[in-house]
């Protein structure tokens, strides 16, 4: 087989994959527009916030190979900042979201600058240590409200025109933020920058030998991931009109890892599937009390044993096998 034939086949496969992705995005948008008329909107908003959080985390784990145990720091602290800006300063919700996202990004830059100097479990432990520092800061800082958190955060008027007090209106705003965030992540992943991140993940030493400043790429990915986590946390604070220690606790960092692994690491839609699965379990099995954690653990073990690549990862592998069989 000639080189031109091979390249043509790869190009055709790439075009098909891009086509399937666009179809999946279109279907997801259609489902998202209809969903609040079928499912409780507040549950959907919570799931979308965590889906965005998990998607940002997946940018770091799935495409750079860096496992962070401290992403709740950016998610939760951004929620506090957004709540304080909107409630105490009296600024509109879009400004609160921007402030929260900016603080999450800034924290990511500071922590990431130190954390990327280590690899593997040492990197994970450094991020966890910094996250615990942020947790105690949130507990002791006067503007966070301590154990009570910031309550009664007003949703306000978006751009001074759109009232966010109605759950349906708030849902479509959250859905828009999620879609924009997901498209941004998709663009980053499929850009030359994203391809370089994948090269670093696969063989860091080779990337260094090719002249890439690996630490600079890692730091930028860390900052982008933290900013998306901050955007998700700020949005969640407006949805539930509260910012508490739960969002900045290490449990939240563990949950986002679980969501990403269940859905599929290194896939665009995997974290979204994992977030909806975990949030759904927590919501619909809440009446069983502490047993919900056992149910979560059982599902996680089953997925690890049966779906090594995650739900979406296994589905993509199945499609690839069928495509190769018929090519």
TrEMBL record:
This is Branched-chain amino acid ABC transporter permease. InterPro entries: ABC_transp_permease, LivM-like. Its main location: membrane. Coiled coil: none annotated. It comes from the Bacteria. Pfam families: BPD_transp_2. The chain crosses the membrane at residues 20-39, 97-116, 121-139, 169-189, 256-278, 284-307. It is a multi-pass membrane protein. The keyword Transmembrane helix applies. Keywords: Cell membrane, Membrane, Transmembrane, Transmembrane helix. It comes from Tistrella arctica. It is found in: Cell membrane.
């Amino acid at each position: 087989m000639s080189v031109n034939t091979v390249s043509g086949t790869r190009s055709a496969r790439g075009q098909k994959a891009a086509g399937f992705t666009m179809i999946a995005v279109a279907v997801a948008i259609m489902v998202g527009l209809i969903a609040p008329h079928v499912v409780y909107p507040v549950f959907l908003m919570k799931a979308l916030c965590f889906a965005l959080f998990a998607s940002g985390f997946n940018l770091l784990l799935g495409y750079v190979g860096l496992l962070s145990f401290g992403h709740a720091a950016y998610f939760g602290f951004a929620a506090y900042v957004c709540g304080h800006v909107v409630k105490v300063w009296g600024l509109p919700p879009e400004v609160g979201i921007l402030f929260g996202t900016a603080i999450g990004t800034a924290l990511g830059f500071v922590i990431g600058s130190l954390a990327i100097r280590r690899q593997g479990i040492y990197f994970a432990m450094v991020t966890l240590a910094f996250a615990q520092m942020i947790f105690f800061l949130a507990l002791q800082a006067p503007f966070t409200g301590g154990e009570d958190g910031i309550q009664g955060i007003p949703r306000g008027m978006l751009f001074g025109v759109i009232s966010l007090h109605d759950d349906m209106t708030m849902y479509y705003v959250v859905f828009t933020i999620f879609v924009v965030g997901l498209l941004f992540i998709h663009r980053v992943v499929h850009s030359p920058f994203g391809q370089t991140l994948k090269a670093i993940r696969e063989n860091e030493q080779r990337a260094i030998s090719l002249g890439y400043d690996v630490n600079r790429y890692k730091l930028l990915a860390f900052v982008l991931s933290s900013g998306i986590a901050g955007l998700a946390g700020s949005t969640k604070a407006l949805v539930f009109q509260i910012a508490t220690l739960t969002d900045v606790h290490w449990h939240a960092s563990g949950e986002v890892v679980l969501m990403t692994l269940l859905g599929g690491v290194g896939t665009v839609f995997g974290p979204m599937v994992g977030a909806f699965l975990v949030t759904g379990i927590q919501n619909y099995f809440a009446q069983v009390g502490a047993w919900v954690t056992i149910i979560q653990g059982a599902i996680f073990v089953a997925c690890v044993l049966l779906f090594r690549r995650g739900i979406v990862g296994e589905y993509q592998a199945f499609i690839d096998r069928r495509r190769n069989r018929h090519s």
